[in-house]
Structure formats: structure tokens, C-alpha cells
Amino acid sequence: MVQIILVLVLAYLLGSIPSGLIIGKVFYKTDIREHGSGNLGGTNTFRTLGVKAGLAVTLADILKGTLAASLPVLFNLPDLNPLIAGVFAVVGHTYPIFAGFRGGKAVATSGGVVLFCAPYMFIAVLVVFFISLYITKYVSLSSMLAGVCGVIYGLVLWNIPLLIAIVLLTSFVIYRHRANIKRIINKTEPKIKWL
């Protein structure tokens, strides 16, 4: 039990690593929390620092989720579902202890969890994300639609633990995008210009 608790704490701490803050400050001398949406995730990094920085932050955030989900396997804890460790990383990413509990919107790190636990689902949601992004130019809408695709995929697979985790993660992603939803409805949500 102690090992499980330690691994979950470690998963949270991994998720808490503020990739956007680190890359912004180290390579661009910029605190991205003071620009754009004030968010630490990849989307605000793209808008504030450009494509290279945005890609770096997005990949780092994905890897946080993947690594956290792999911890139960690495520590040989068969009683701990990797999805649970992954959810703790997502909470860490969203409410990071290393960045004043102001983090990202849970999309990339959730994707990293899915990448480890259900790689084919990851490919499916990624395809949906980019198709939606190409058509709408809205990162927020594309992120939410990718989550909904994950839920549908989980229903088709009927893998109950995976389905529960995906429903939780997607609900969390949609909750974190509630301001974006209002802006989409009001047609004031920023569109990307690089695709």
C-alpha cells in the first residue's frame, strides 16, 4: 500500500513539472503565464512563443502522462492500474505544485496516458484532433472532440476501466475548456494561423 501511495505521489509530481514555464523561461526568457491566456499548456505556448516552443511543450506534456502511466509497471505494482497513475499526472499537470497550482488544460497529458494504456485509441483521437483542427482552426474544440472520440472508442472496446478513465479525463478536459466553449459560441475564440 505504501508503494502504491508513493507511486501516485510521484505520478502527481511528474504531472506537475511545468514544461511551458521551464521552456519559456530557459529558452525565451518569458513567463508564458503573463501572456495570452495565461495558461501553461501547449496552446498558449504556440501562441506566445511560436511553433518550436509549442511543439516542445506539447511533447513534454504528453511524455509526462506516458511516463506516469508506466510507473506501476516500472515498479512492478500489478494491483495499481496504470490509468489511475495517469489520472494523478493529469491532476498534477492541471494543478501543478511547482507552478502555484496554475497549469494546463489536461489535453496533452491525458493523451500521454492514453498513448501508454491504449496506443490505437491514441492514434484515433490524434487523427480526429487534426482533422477537426484543419477544418475549424479551433484547438479547444478539436481537443474536446478528440476526447469524445476516445469515449466512443472506449464504448466500442467495452473495456470498463479504460472507459471510466476516458470519461473522467474527457469530462475534465471539457470542464477546463468551459470559457473556450463560451467564446466559440460567441465567435470570439482565437483560431490558429499555422495550419
From TrEMBL:
Transmembrane intervals: 6-28, 49-71, 83-101, 113-135, 155-175
Keywords, comma-separated and alphabetical: Acyltransferase, Cell membrane, Lipid biosynthesis, Lipid metabolism, Membrane, Phospholipid biosynthesis, Phospholipid metabolism, Transferase, Transmembrane, Transmembrane helix
Cellular component GO terms, alphabetical: plasma membrane
Coiled coil: none
UniProt catalytic activity: an acyl phosphate + sn-glycerol 3-phosphate = a 1-acyl-sn-glycero-3-phosphate + phosphate
Membrane-topology annotation of the record: Multi-pass membrane protein
Gene Ontology MF term list: acyl-phosphate glycerol-3-phosphate acyltransferase activity
Enzyme Commission number(s): 2.3.1.275
A Pfam family of this chain: G3P_acyltransf
Entries under InterPro entries matching the protein: G3P_acylTferase_PlsY (IPR003811)
Pathway entry: Lipid metabolism; phospholipid metabolism
Cell membrane among keywords: yes
Keyword Transmembrane in annotation: yes
Described function: Catalyzes the transfer of an acyl group from acyl-phosphate (acyl-PO(4)) to glycerol-3-phosphate (G3P) to form lysophosphatidic acid (LPA). This enzyme utilizes acyl-phosphate as fatty acyl donor, but not acyl-CoA or acyl-ACP.
Family in the record: Belongs to the PlsY family.
HAMAP family: PlsY (MF_01043)
Name by which UniProt lists this protein: Glycerol-3-phosphate acyltransferase
Classification of source organism: Bacteria, Bacillati, Bacillota, Bacilli, Bacillales
